[in-house]
Specification:
- The complex is a heterodimer of chains A (111) and B (138).
- Chain A is built from 3 helices and 8 strands, in the order αββααββββββ.
- With 111 residues, chain A is of the alpha+beta class.
- The termini of chain A are far apart.
- Chain B has 138 residues and is α/β, with parallel strands linked by helices.
- Chain B has a 6-stranded mixed β-sheet with strand order 3-2-5-6-7-8. Chain B has a two-stranded parallel sheet with strand order 1-9.
- In chain B, a hairpin with a 2-residue loop joins strand 7 and strand 8.
- The two termini of chain B are 13 Å apart.
- The chains are: A alpha+beta (111), B alpha/beta (138).
- Chains A and B meet through strand 7 and strand 8 of A and strand 4, helix 2 and helix 3 of B.
Amino acid sequence: MATVSGSDVRDRPPDTGETPAMVIEVRIPTILRTYTDGARSVQGSGATLRELLDDLETRHPGMLDRIVDEAGLRRFVNVYLNDEDVRFLNGIDTELSDGDVVTVLPAVAGG
Amino acid sequence: MLTIRQDLVDAIVAHARADHPDEACGVIAGPFGSDRPERFIPMVNSARSPTFYEFDSGDLFRLYRDMDLADEVPVVIYHSHTATEAYPSRTDVSYASEPQAHYVLVSTRETGPDAGPYEFRSYSIVDGQITEEEINIV
């Protein structure tokens, strides 16, 4: 008969109804490293890209506005989930998982 | 000042001529901290336009991933103007996002795809300010 020992149950963290903490690595382009004290990558968490960017904003104020505008992601800022441009996923509502790597790269463009 | 090898100048000009009348674009990567352009990387202009250029988003990701792995930076970011002078446009300035890079502009307006005179100029673009710089060809 399968049993669950009492100690196993007590060792579990209390169920607060929150999702477990996740860690997303975010790679920061040169132009935005003024917001990260020069760090090339920072960590954040969020179930979606939008939540992740909001989370980063709490520690790196000002960076959010360089990545998004009222319409969503800025046209000339590319954001990748692992190696996929999020525009081909679900944009700013793209869902994230623990261990994902998000890369921000300004478009190289001009006239 | 931009110090650049003659063969890399020739490669940029050849790319600009080949893509004329559309704008050509690309990067010359170099070791981090060296300010020395070494690895010529022509890029596809995903806009395929005579008045606009943009690196394809997937190509851009791979470019930066490869440069990171090799501890390189984009020392030169080049593109061509095909009907106007080799001077940064307002759009060029508004999207310039590599303050350490040398922004090289080539104009093919004189001779298009053919051999002949061309303009080849280099600028730094920092916080919206354009500063032309000397070019030392070695």
